[in-house]
Design a protein that fits this description.
By secondary structure, this protein is an alpha+beta fold. The protein has 7 helices and 13 strands. Strands 3-2-4-1-10-9-11 form a 7-stranded antiparallel β-sheet. The chain has a 6-stranded antiparallel β-sheet with strand order 5-6-7-8-12-13. The protein is globular, with a radius of gyration of 17 Å.
Amino acid sequence: MCRFLAYLGPSIFLDELICKPQHSLVRQSLRADQAKVVTNGDGFGIGWYGELPSPGIYREVMPAWSDENLLALCSNVRSHLFFAHVRAATGTGISRQNCHPFRYGPYLFMHNGQIGGYGKIRRAMEARLPDHLYAERKGATDSELLFLLIVARIETGQSIQQAVSQILNETLAMMHVLHIQEPLRFAGALADGHQVHAFRFSSDKRAPTLYLRRDETSQGLAVASEPLADDQEGWELIPPGTVVHLDERGHSSSELLS
């Protein structure tokens, strides 16, 4: 499975969390501790908000540990809200279009997990996309498809939490109709430039790990697939079936997914 982190708080250089920590995301791309697979070398991506409403992204297919451009970029870019993701492909090809995070308008999204029986359900799910969002689909992953379906719900006036809950429930219902026994697992983060919403969910008892911590130096909030230090002190494991909301005032709150 993939590994990711999200940060919201006072502006910091991206490398403070992506590259420098003892168990940084770059290190996790080579050796993760809490993933099904140790190596997450099937591409990576970062996304950050600056002066424009729409976030910038940088994605590449090479492993994060071998990209000098990633290190140079992270050591020179500051942001108050950024995402980073290292990928372990699960059934779809290794390409830039399949790397996370994904963006649309002001939204940024990344995901760790999978839709069970995705090959059987993919066509039916894509048919539910409005034409303008189907045209935005560049890759083949279930993650990008879930993101665009969520955006479609947001555009009808639903909150981010309502949109995610509804898409997960609809996906589970479609899987049931098609007699798909494999689980739906979803650890994801979605940002709008001002807030971060982090989700941990699974239809079985093996939800992908997701942790929350306040950064001691910046006092910002970080969400990560696994702690960024071998010492896990201060990292709070988010319970399964939960959404955590982070805001620009440095507040966090959590509630159960409906």
